[in-house]
Amino acid sequence: SSGINAEYGIGSKGEKNFGNEDRICEEKVREQLSDFFNLNIKVSDLTGAWSTDGHLTSLLGEHAGLRLIRNDPYECLISFITSACNNIPRISSLLLALSSLSPVSHSLSNTTFHPLPPISIFSEPGMEA
Q1: How far is 118 from 127, CA to CA, in rounded Å?
Q2: pTM beyond cutoff 0.70
């Protein structure tokens, strides 16, 4: 399963009059968010299995609603690397700059989103080391 940004960007300005394309995209985003956050799995069903792990049990006690997300490994790695020794505005700036290299784009409510580019783009001539 790919990450949310791999196929559709996420953003909303709160408009209620979506066009048909936006409505379809919004439904896809909802499906992908549900998949990303594993919302089809009841956490209460898992807590019994997790109760044998002392560390998880203490986390569940401290963080009600804890969820295991389904994150694309490539997106996770890129986000981790860009977060090293950076603040949130800098991380956002770096990820937006990387995403702008993607040949793919999606629009929703007059906002264009780009997924992270494929890893192969970094080996193309002209890319800085």
Answers
A1: 13
A2: no
Question: What residues does 112 pair with on adjacent strands?
Answer: 107
Give pLDDT, residue 26.
Answer: 80
Contact criterion met (CB below 8 Å) for 114 and 105: yes
The model's pLDDT over 49-92, given as tens digits with 9 standing for 90+, comes to 777 888 877 877 787 766 778 788 888 888 888 888 889 999 98
Reduced to 3 states, what is the DSSP secondary structure of residue 40? coil
Q: Give just the sign of the alpha carbon dihedral 11, 13, 18, 21.
A: negative
SS3 107: strand
Tokens (6 digits) for 41: 């799995």
Distance CA 105, CA 115 (A): 7
Can you state the percent helix, strand and coil of the chain, rounding each to 5?
50, 5, 45
1-19: string of b/e by CB count within 10 Å (b at 16+)? ebbbbbebbbeeeeeeeee
Tell me the pLDDT tens digit for each residue of 68-79: 787 888 888 888
8 Å CB contact between 14 and 111: no
